[in-house]
Amino acid sequence: MAVTLKDFMTAEDVLTIEPGLTLAAAAESMSGRNVGAAVVVEGGRVVGIFTERDLLRAVGRGTTPADAAVRDHMTPDPVTLPSDHAPSEAAAIMSERRFRHIPVIDGGELVGIVSIRDLISADLHIHTADAHVGSDFP
Ligand code: AMP
Fold first, then answer.
1. pTM assigned to the model
2. Which of 57, 69, 78, 98 is the most buried (most CB within 10 A)?
3. Whose CA is nearest to atom 22 of ligand 1?
4. How far is 28 from 64, CA to CA, in rounded Å?
């Protein structure tokens, strides 16, 4: 059976935040969960993605995190993929577009998030499986 994003994405407890949250509160949630990205959701719909890169950029511009809202610093309408997509295509998109996270959406519902780290692990699994198939060992 083909390997899909479902096999490697984080499906449990994806960190979601609202667009009106301050950058300080978003940073606290992200660091508390030890993740580099939060999916921005409004009215049950994914409206953006906010990552550590956006936070860094905002702070670098002199923004005060306690006084700024996620909606003004997130990337709206992020690239998303369905869970039956091939990990290799997700990796190609991340490489071309220069970001490290893709929310996974099935039928309009957020079902997971895949990061470049997950895809490195996917690639290792695929190559390990290939190596086993190709070896002389049973
Ligand atoms: P990252 O490398 O994921 O930390 O993100 C780098 C930049 O790309 C940040 O400005 C993010 O908001 C943006 N970004 C991250 N993921 C996506 C995505 N799936 N679609 C569009 N932009 C994204």
1. 0.90
2. 78
3. 78
4. 14
